[in-house]
Structures are given as structure tokens and as C-alpha cells.
């Protein structure tokens, strides 16, 4: 067959000897887009679109990875309904096919949850940017999950000092958790933690009675960016299924062009350190 | 029923009289995200995620639109497989429910096509950013379709003056067409026009024999940004199913930080005009 | 001299005959970055950084433009303090050097205004994204200016129906004006029109007494996105120095993930049209 | 004086007691824009525009930071010509004024270098995105510097297997270095390391003889993304003035929509770790 004959003759530069004798931790592809299916907590599946990064390590003695093996393997699993276990399985497949010791796969995708408006019960779809980040190799693996939740924050200081009202705005809550091995954490539960800690959760459909409800609820729950990040921290730190977590909250201040930001990380003893 | 009683009591500010006495052409929502289904040329459907803008007009005498009616209507058609006719139908529904004279719906989404690598025939998914832009009202409608195609461009000047090789790069081809009423244009056909006019189309999976093929094909087809835009223009101008079209090509020069850009528009006689 | 001898021998592909016989309206470079100086209304100059697009037309019989002449000309005027007249002068230079009939130059840059906080009078710098868009040729020219103003909007409906408070958020006001020939419009005046039409302007430094002021002022000035766009329209339509203008307002709703948008354009009689 | 009387009366919510008893590592402002001056290696200064993030820590017992003190302090140093020492000085000022133990300041800005085209010697301005990240407190400090260099990469495999030519593209090289205390590293030197390791550096103005030069030079220097990252690593690892460094290279493949990426970090022994 002509094509394979030709292939045999083509020099294989990637597998030639590297002049550098240096291993590389992370080599691969970025910004690979694909439609995927995700399993939801309610047992259904949903369709969405992921941007995928796939990385492997490269041995000191090799000049380059066989890069086409990464999209070929990703491509084979697009019809599959993904969850952390399934993505780990894909990582193992990528690693083996590419003859690497470790493989990291990062899937970023919008995730959708249908919510009922608080009073009218009108249904509306809310979207959350989610990242599944899996790394596998040397007989072990780790999984990190990030979810980006938009919520309302209302300023306690503005409320206290003003005759009426208080400035409020979109709060962008970014929550990353690393579950312990064999522990499974639902996206829906992380989203609930973030929304409960804000002044009020948001909705995509609100009728007048709902707008009254969310306005008044936010006013009854004023929160600094510091309050939101601490409240989420308190909620997560008592869980026993997490190795670590990180919370970043950014309030898109309605009275400023800059954002108010607070970050907490369970991992390190950062005190007395710059 | 309690909720509706409450609603009845709530003042309806949007429907109060406007102090301005000015109609507004375009009022609505932007950045509404939803998973959708799209019909493909091959008769199958594909799942993807759209960012939707929905706009209506507002009468001079009204203070505001009933904005929640826009997401409510969009929401009802998410399980539907969309094509231009179906989106027009949604636009009519939005317009009627919101009591407007016109409605514009803009869906932006990544669209996927499976391609076989040119020599190895290995399958790989390519993505194209697509916009469907429909405007409906006063008994008529118009539809514009934009597709964004990434391709390879190789510089004819660099080839001619250099001993060997030529600089080449990603070319970003943005094609907008407005089909005549009752004419239907396939996305797949517009993508083919764009790819044929480039130095070489791109693929998501390329084995060594394929890489040889695309490298040599691009070298045999050197194209300035001006050549690509003119070639697409020539191809489209002879079609009888288009009201107008616009082509924008931007080469992400591998030898510069800036891009080389060319734009042609079939609509206007721009000569002798600034 | 060696370099020029070499140049003489190199084939000049751009100036060879085009096979297409089609003029191109717009050819040039995009995303060219440069530090610039801008004249302010107060007579001082300020330093900022522009992203510049520079376009010319191409004759039907030429294969390509001499693209390097565009950055060479831009480059020569970086130490100059820019205003619309100066940019027009650069456009004329680009056009002549590149032997074109028309030249369009688009400068996008952040513009800074120092404001005093409303009560404490503490100074703080606010930034506004500005675009100067000049087109020159055939003995005439046109100039469009766009300014992007961030302000606070507070919802009248939410205020009316809620026991206390009202949802409020960042409002993104995009104002484009095209002054009549020989008329000059200050950026500072356009920014003032936009800020006056919002619920409250924003500041980069606010002490407690200022925060009280802006919270209460916004509550006293509730504005729908429709109110803001109409108010700006009314303000601009009575000016005699504008050929046309366009206003786009996008409220980054604190209770939704999507934005509320309104657009008005003085140019066209859009009624009864889709 | 009225204003300060009023201030005295306003309740100070930020300084009230927190219910959480949790310190926060990072609280502050993000996306604060300001024009700045930077010192260059050649001894001149250049004007540019920075996006600044300013963070401090918050004690367990305080409810919130005095956020306005951050922009007030940044504001006071805008006329200063910045270098790492000066930014450290600003960090100390922010920390003291805000009564914090540590302060982190992150300045991101485009940096400009004038280059002469390789043959014609025509001058042209190139821009590099730079980040200065300083953290100060507990009697010590650390400084990280990131520079983003665009260069040309040409594929060795494509060159070897193809009859003529090779695919080439923009390579995005992101270099972060952390100099040892009292060591100073020039941006210009880091940029040179990155450009030397690519297939060819880029220019903003290239005449025909220059285009011949860069095309042929890139063809003589084919580099995988792996080669570029390893070459930079080798160059930096022998320096004695760095605590650590990280190199990320992303090739915007002209034959794919996805990028080819390689990352090396001097810090950790990542082998046998997932």
C-alpha cells in the first residue's frame, strides 16, 4: 500500500536522539475544541463543548513527542459521557499510546443547571464554567475540579452608611477543590456552597415577584468580598473528602472600574511568608 | 394563588409611560448561553453551545421592554434542532410574546466537521466559529450567516525571494453571506470556498505523511492576504443565491507581531469614497 | 552599497500584475502596538499605548500593497502628540507613501481622566477606552470617535417593587460620534454626556463619605438601560456639530449572567425595516 | 470641617470585628489601569500603561481591609519611573498605609524595544507583554518577572520530510524568572535568551531583503516546541543570579487549530510525580 510505504521512508525526527539530554515535564496540545457529554448529579447527561489541553512528559533522550497521538486519542472518546473516572481512563490511554510516564488532561466547558425562579417558579438555564484537571502516572492520579459561579454581592459598608440602598454587583466566585482519592464531589454541591455564601444567587429568568425577592434577599445578606471567601472556606474546611481547596472571589464593583478580590488557599501555611 | 396575587400588586414600571417619546431600535439581552442542536449538511444533528443575543424594538410611548420574555422564549426552544428556518420561527415567537414589531436573534456557536487527514485518512474534528443572525418583522425577514475558518497562508514574496522555504502562518478567514429569500446556503459549502482559496486547509490530526502533504501543498499555493480575499470574492460573486457578502482575511504573520488584513464587501460601491 | 544592490535584484512580487483585476477596499495591518501621546482638553498631553490598524485600498491591477510602508510611516509619528488633525496628517502620509487613493487609520487606546471623589475630594484616575477612526482620500476625510464609559445603573423596577434597595451594576456605555467637517468634539464632553445619563458616575478612589454619596445618588436616579440610551440620544440629537452618532449601553446585571442591552443610532430611519 | 465630621459619624464596618476569626492571605484590587514610566536597559525611560493588582493580607479579627488605601497609594506613584526597587518601595508604602503584614503588587504592561531590520536596518518598534510581581513583608521580599516574547518557529520534522519548505508559525514564549536577592536581571537580556532560542526573532518592519533574511534564517534553524523550551532552560540553568525560572512555549501551528505547548520549571523535582 502506497501510503504506508511512504511513511516507512519518511525520517522520524521526533524519535531521533535529542542533543539536550533534558526531560520535559509538560509537552502537548492546547486549545483543542470538541463537543462532549457530561454526567449530571441528577443522573442525566448533558451536551456541551470543551476546550481540551493534553500534556505528557518527554524523556531526556527523545527529541520530541508523537504529538498526533494526543488528538487521535481524545477524538476516540468524544461520544463517551465524561466524568472524572472516564477522563482518567482517557488519560491512561493517551499516556500508553504516547509511551509517556504521565499524562495531564484539562477539560474546560460550560456546565448548565436549570433553576426555578424563587417565587414564580419559572424555569431558566444557568451556566457555570467548569474545569476538570486530571493527572495520571506512576501508578497514581490526582483530580482537581474548578467551578466558576456568578452571584450577587451587596456591600455591608454601603448599606450601613447610606440612608437607603447599597451598591451591589456581580461576584465572580472561582472554587477549586481536590478530592481525596476515591472521594467523589458533585459540581452541583460546590455550586451550592458558592451561591449560599453570596448575598444572593442569580437566575436567568426573573419575573417581577422574583426580582423583588432577589433584591430584598441581597439587601438582607450584605457581604464583603472578604465575607464570601471566608464563608466558603469555613464550609469547605470541615469536609473530610478534600485534599485541599482554593477560593477566589472577585466583585465587579458597580461603583469602580477595578474589582475587589479575595483569595484563600487551604494548602499552605502562608503566614509569615512573602 | 399567592404568587399571582403578589404580582398583581407589584407596580409595572416597564409598562408605564416613557418621558422620552423616542422609539428604540434595539433592546434586549446579550451573552445568554445555552446548549443547542444544529442540523448538518449530511443530515445528522450535532450538539454545541451557543451564546445568544436577543433584541426587539421598543415603542416611543413605553418605558421598557418585558425583558424576562426573551430568555423565557429562548429557553423553550433549546431541545429543538436549529436551522435558519427554526431560528426565524423562534424570532417570531419572541416578537409576538414581547409585543414588538421586530426581533433580531444572533446565535454564535462552534460548529464541528470531521475531516480525514489527506494521506493517512486518519479522522480528526475541526471547529469553526459560526454566527446565525436573523431579523424578522413587518412581514419580512433577513438572515446573515458568518463562518470563521482557520487555514494556512504561505507568502508568495517570501517564496520568490528566498533560496528555500517561505514564511507561512494561520490565516483567519471570516466570511459573511446574506442569502436571498428562500435560498439556503450550507455552512459546509462556505467553509469549502474559504479553504480552497487558502494555501492549504488545516486538519486536527496529521501523521507524518500528511504533514509532508500539507507542507508541500502550501508551498505550491503561495497566497498573499490579498489573493485569498480576491479568490473568495470571485467565487462568491458569481453565485445567484446571495444578496451580498463580506470577506475579511487576517494573516497572523509568523514574522511579525501584527497581522496582515484584507477586506472586501460586495455591497457598496466604495470606490471614490472615504 | 551592498544592501540596495541586493534589493534591486530581488523580484518585486507585490508590484507584479494581479490575475484577478479586482480592486480591494481595505488592505493593511492590524494589531500594531505603540506608545503614543494624546492632547487633553485641559491643554496638557498624556502618554498611553495604542493598538493601531492601518488600511489602504489596492488597485485592481496590483497583486499586493507594499505592506512595510504602513508600519514605517506609523513609526515616524510616535513622538508626536496626537489629535484628530494630526492623525489625519499621518493618514495622508501613509496614503501618499503607499501610493493609495484612501487610507484608514484606527487608534484604540485607554484614556485617563483624574477625578476628585464627590465628598472627600480625594483624587483618583479613571480610564476610558477610546477609538479614533480616520479615513482620508479623494480630497475629503471623515472622523469617528468612540468612547467607552463605565458607570453605575440602578434598576427603577427593582426599586419600585422592593421594600428597600434596588439591584445596581456596572453599565458599559459605548458612544460613537462623527463630528461634522471642521467641528471638533472633546472626549471629555462625550464622557460627561454618558456619565450624566447614568444613575451615577464611577470613581477609582472612594472614601466612606463618598461611598455614601454614590450609593444614595444612584438610588435617587434609577435608570433602565432604555432610559440611559434615550437620555444620551436626547442630549446628542440637539447638537449641531455631529453628522451622526450611535449609543450602545450594556448593563452587566447583578441578578443575571446575561446583560441588558439597548442601542440607538441617529443615522437611519430603521422603523418598518428588518 | 463638614466632610470629616460626617466621616466621624459614619460607622466603620471594615474595622468592626469579624465573626469568622480567619486571616485572609490575599485581599485587594484587580484591574486598576494607569499610565506608568519604566526604566530601560539603555538608561532612558519609556511610557506605557499598566494593569495593576494590589493585594494585602487581612488579620483574623478584622472584617475587611480599607480598600481605598490601595488605589490612593498606587495613585501617588504614577509619575515615578518604575523599576523593581521602586515597585518594592510602593509595596512597602501600601502595606504600611493599610496596616498589613505583607503586600503583593503585580504590574502588567506592554514594553517596547526598537529593533533594526536585519539587512535594511530600517527601525521598527516591537512590543513585549511584561509582568512585574513583587511581594514584600516580614522583613523580606521576592520579585518575579515575566516576559512574553513572540518569535518564529519552524518545524524540523516538516523540513526533513518535505521536498521543499517547512511549516512555520508564531511561537509565544513566556519566560518567568525569580532573581536572587540583590540580583538584577534586565528584561532585554531575558528577551534575547528567548529570541535566540527560537527559529528566528520577529521584527515590526521588514523590507524585501529582510524578509529573505528571516525566511532563510528560520529554515536554517528548525525548532520543535521541545527544542525551544530546552534551549532556554539550558541557557538559564547555568546562571547564578536566579532562584528559579519557568519557561512556557506555545506554537500557534499554521497547520492546526490547536497549539503545540511545552513547559519546563526549574523549581521542583517533578519526576515520578503526578
For the CA atoms, what is the radius of gyration of chain A? Answer: 23 Å
Mean of pLDDT of chain A: 92
Helix-and-strand structural type of chain A: alpha+beta
Work out the number of β strands of chain A. Answer: 10
Main beta sheet strand tally, sense and closure of chain A: 10 strands, mixed
Give the SSE order of chain A as H and E letters: HEEHEHEEEHEHEHHEE
**Fraction of residues in H or I helices of chain A:** 25-40%
Total number of helices of chain A: 7
Largest interface: B-C, 65 and 66 residues
Sequence stretches where pLDDT stays below 50 over 5 or more residues of chain A: 1-8
Distance, first to last CA of chain A: 63 Å
What is the approximate shape of chain A?
Answer: elongated
Name the quaternary structure.
Answer: homotetramer
* Beta-strand percent range of chain A: 35-45%
Task: Characterise the protein shown here.
The structure is a homotetramer of 274-residue chains. By secondary structure, chain A is of the alpha+beta class. Chain A has seven helices and ten strands. The first copy, chain A, has helices spanning 2-9, 69-76, 84-97, 156-161, 187-197, 208-220, 225-237; strands at 24-39, 45-58, 81-82, 102-116, 123-137, 140-154, 168-179, 200-201, 242-251, 259-265. In chain A, strands 1, 2, 3, 4, 5, 6, 7, 8, 9 and 10 form a ten-stranded mixed β-sheet that branches. In chain A, helix 2 runs antiparallel to helix 3. The longest helix of chain A is centred in the N-terminal third of the chain and has 14 residues, at 84-97. The first copy, chain A, is elongated and about 80 Å long.
Amino acid at each position: 500500500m502506497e501510503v504506508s510505504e511512504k511513511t516507512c521512508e519518511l525520517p522520524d525526527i521526533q524519535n531521533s536522539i535529542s542533543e539536550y539530554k533534558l526531560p520535559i515535564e509538560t509537552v502537548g496540545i492546547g486549545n483543542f475544541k470538541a463537543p462532549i457529554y457530561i454526567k449530571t448529579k441528577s443522573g442525566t447527561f448533558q451536551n456541551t463543548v470543551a476546550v481540551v489541553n493534553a500534556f505528557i512528559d518527554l524523556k531526556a533522550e527523545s527529541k520530541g513527542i508523537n504529538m498526533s497521538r494526543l488528538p487521535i486519542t481524545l477524538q476516540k472518546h468524544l461520544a463517551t459521557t465524561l466524568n472524572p473516572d472516564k477522563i482518567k481512563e482517557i488519560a491512561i490511554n493517551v499516556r500508553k499510546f504516547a509511551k509517556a510516564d504521565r499524562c495531564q488532561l484539562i477539560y474546560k466547558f460550560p456546565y448548565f443547571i436549570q433553576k426555578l425562579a424563587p417565587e414564580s417558579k419559572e424555569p431558566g438555564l444557568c451556566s457555570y464554567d467548569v474545569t476538570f484537571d486530571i493527572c495520571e502516572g506512576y501508578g497514581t492520579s490526582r483530580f482537581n475540579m474548578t467551578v466558576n459561579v456568578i452571584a450577587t454581592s451587596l456591600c455591608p459598608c454601603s448599606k450601613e452608611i447610606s440612608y437607603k440602598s447599597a451598591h451591589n454587583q456581580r461576584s465572580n466566585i472561582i472554587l477549586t477543590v481536590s478530592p481525596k482519592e476515591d472521594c467523589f464531589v458533585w459540581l452541583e454541591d460546590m455550586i451550592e456552597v458558592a451561591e449560599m455564601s453570596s448575598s444572593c444567587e442569580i437566575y436567568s429568568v426573573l419575573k417581577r415577584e422574583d426580582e423583588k425577592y432577589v433584591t430584598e434577599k441581597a439587601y438582607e445578606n450584605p457581604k464583603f468580598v472578604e465575607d464570601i471567601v471566608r464563608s466558603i472556606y469555613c464550609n469547605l474546611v470541615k469536609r473530610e473528602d478534600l485534599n485541599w481547596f482554593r477560593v477566589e472571589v472577585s466583585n465587579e464593583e458597580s461603583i469602580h472600574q477595578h474589582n475587589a478580590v479575595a483569595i484563600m488557599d487551604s494548602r499552605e501555611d502562608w503566614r509569615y511568608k512573602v
